[in-house]
Amino acid sequence: MRGNKIRQKLCVVLLAGVLALSSSGCGAAAGSGVKKAGTYDPLPVYKYTFGLLGEDEMPVVMFGGPIDGFIMDGYKPETMINDNIYRYYKEAGVNGIVGTANWVNGDRLDEVTRILNYTEKYRINYVTFDTSLIWLNNADIPSLDDENVKQRLDFYEQYESFAGIYCQDEARMEYLDELAKAHQFVFDYNEKNGTNLIAYSNMHPYWTGSEVGYYSTDYTNKQYDYEMMIRGFMDKGKLPYLSYDRYSLLRSAGDDQPGTLDQEWFENLALIRGWAQEYQIPFWVCLPVGGWGALNKAPNEPEFQWLVNSALACGAKGIEYFPGVQPTSDDYMEVPNGELGLVAMDGQKTKYYYYSKNVTAQIRACQKYLMNAASVGILVDPASSPDSNISNDLPFQMPDGYTFLLDEFRELRSVSDNGLVGCFDYKGRTMLYVMNNTLEDEVDEVTLKFDGAYGYSVIQRGIVRSTTGKTLTLNLNGGEGALVLLK
Question: pLDDT per residue over 118-139, tens digit each?
Fold first, then answer.
């Protein structure tokens, strides 16, 4: 068995890993040839925050807000809009909600008022889907001088937690001109009122080849490829961030069996990262909170950690989840209660509440570094699993000098034992985001080898420690990440 793998239940492993923090990673005694790490010309950093968020606070945004009560298989909550739900969101590390389940078309304003009272209490950004303001392909974008528009926006502006307006999810090529007008509506409002509202739109994932016809409203229209879709979205939409969704964890058997990763996860990350760097904006990734349909597997905790941490290692400056509460439509309702969303149909916390709470504790401890660091590339143990397509050979032409996969990085020479390392410049210093690149429920000793002995600040599970050495060994659970800053 490669590495020093200890197969145990995750709850036991977490305790063991914490106890090991004080002893792992010491490759040399303090003072025994330890030298100062290099300083470099700082690289440009692109980040974006909105609403209540501070400039160094990473967005963790929930797509889809809770709704009023419904009936399904005996579950009949009076309403899902209650104090517990929003307290759970806050405890799970969520700092933004896109309220796509709460369409405001005149008869649901009371529902959104109650939501805003809770987001105000828990200091969570709320992005409204208000059809009286923006409703693509149904009516023209209104003028900010319209009296009805003024009254509606005055209503929202009573709440500090009102943070933006939903525009479109997974827009097709034919929507882009109208989408640009929707975004401009929000930009103009911000300029006029000195506000920091987000115009929220999310983009497609990459699907191999244009033969799928996925980027057009006409699925038989195969003339558009992914680069045309993304560049059109950015050139016309002019958002200060690039958000896309990718649900890459697939069922190989039942949800109680290990999942498989589709071969386009890292390829999609590499493409989006490259285009975001070219347009000098950050990118966000929307990830699944559960599984639905025939293909999407419900992630266990190592798989959930892996999805979040691999996005962070590749330079993501925001994480999004779908869904928050189990949706009440389509095949989502076929998923057993408690297996989809942070909150179940009966209003109780699911396992994903705890998964999110654990991983966002690490995000919050690291965010001042992650939000101010420039991604240079990733370095991978050649024998690392899962078997996925990590390469500089991409299906579209990237900007000159663009690199995704590195052979080494500054002082770092190699990583072994299932390791994947995100390589960053942090204000002219070397910063690494190290993860255990496995979907398995196991612990690996991930070892970094350097060109000399250095001092390191390590943040793991929200705990900060210091160590020195020519090598650094981290005991990481499956999918777990740790931040390393060279001194």
Answer: 999 999 999 999 888 888 766 6
| Residue partners of 455: CB distance under 8 A and separation at least 6 | 34, 37, 466, 467, 468, 486, 487
Please tell me the distance from the alpha carbon of residue 436 to that of residue 309, in angstroms, as a whole number. 9
For residues 448 and 436, what is the distance between their CA atoms, to the nearest angstrom? 12
Token digits of residue 140: 């023209």
Closest CA to 249 of 318, 298, 284, 302: 298
What b-and-e string marks burial along 216-248, b requiring 16 or more CB atoms within 10 Å of the CB? Answer: beeeeeeebbbbebbebbbebbebbbbbbbbbb
CA distance 134 to 181: 10
| Paired strand residues for 287 | 321
Query: How does pLDDT run across 354-392, given as a tens digit for each residue?
Result: 999 999 999 999 999 999 999 999 999 877 766 567 889
| Dihedral sign, Cα of residue 230, residue 233, residue 236, residue 242 | negative
3-state secondary structure of 454: strand
How far, in Å, CA of 204 to CA of 407, rounded?
30
DSSP letter string, 174-204 = GGHHHHHHHHHHHHHHHHHHT---EEEEEBP
Reference 297, options 330, 358, 340; nearest CA is 340
Global pTM reads: 0.89
What Rg, from alpha-carbon coordinates, does the chain have? 23
Helix (H), strand (E) at residue 279: helix 265-279
